[in-house]
Amino acid sequence: MMDYTILKPLAEGKILLLTISRPAALNALNSVFFSEMDHFISTIADNRDIRALIITGEGKAFAAGADIAEMVNMSPDEGRKFSAVGQAVFNRLSLLPFPVIAAVNGFALGGGMELAMACDFRIASSLAKFGQPEVNLGLIPGYAGTQRLPRLTNLADALWLLTTGEVIDATTALQMRLVQKITEPEALLNEARRIANLIASRGPLAVKLVKEVTRKGLEMRFSEGEKLEQQHFGDPFGNEGAEGMKAFLEKRKAVWD
Ligand code: CO8
After folding, report:
1. Which residue's alpha carbon is nearest to atom 19 within ligand 1?
2. Same-domain check for residues 189 and 219
3. Domain carrying residue 95
4. pTM value > 0.85
5. Contact criterion met (CB below 8 Å) for 131 and 200
């Protein structure tokens, strides 16, 4: 794995652990982060050996937002450009052909919460804090927070967080289904690893397809989504699906590769 300034990638068998490491600034997301993330995504996007990615933060933050110091003097057009770059990188992240799990260890604020929302699901430490405090700075979210939050939770909870900038704890985030699970702080990474390894033990083509169909289907009309599912349902037959079903009938573990 390449050496980065802010990102610390670690391969652990079939899963990857990516740590955002800029703890002195609470892992605030600056342009170096986005260019490293963009590069990192390019290096892993076509690697068939990777079955899941976990993203976490070093220190007391997951990421405390976009880098305010970097944005303070931007013009409206520079702001738009900064937003476009971040949106593109987070979209590429969400479209990776394997699941991406956010292991939220601490503050996930503003752009940090948007990063967590670009992942496929979220596990939170009991110490994690979530919020979209942009309005506190006279700003709005720029990495698709206004779009992902109401889709992941609901319109009212999203507008509560987006208009008040209020920071919520992990229990409240669980109640609004922003996170799927809470762990003790010291158990967070091992729980994320357990889930990632569970994914890695399943049929690799099936995991890839089920993510793609589910995510793409959400952008479509129901009947079009059904057609997409139908089409890809056929893909594993005769190969991975044949092995998985045969293994079940023979009461043995499937051999995927
Ligand atoms: N940007 C830059 N630096 C930051 C950020 C940030 N978002 N967050 C924290 N830091 C820095 C602090 O400035 C401080 O630096 P220094 O030690 O040099 O003074 C260091 O990290 C430690 O922070 P604190 O001393 O403030 O730590 P506390 O434990 O006292 O407080 C908080 C923690 C409550 C998380 C506090 O740091 C805070 O409120 N941070 C800002 C949170 C915030 O408003 N985030 C939203 C940012 S805006 C955003 O994300 C918009 C996204 C869309 C952008 C679209 C592109 C245009």
Report:
1. 25
2. no
3. 7-200
4. yes
5. no
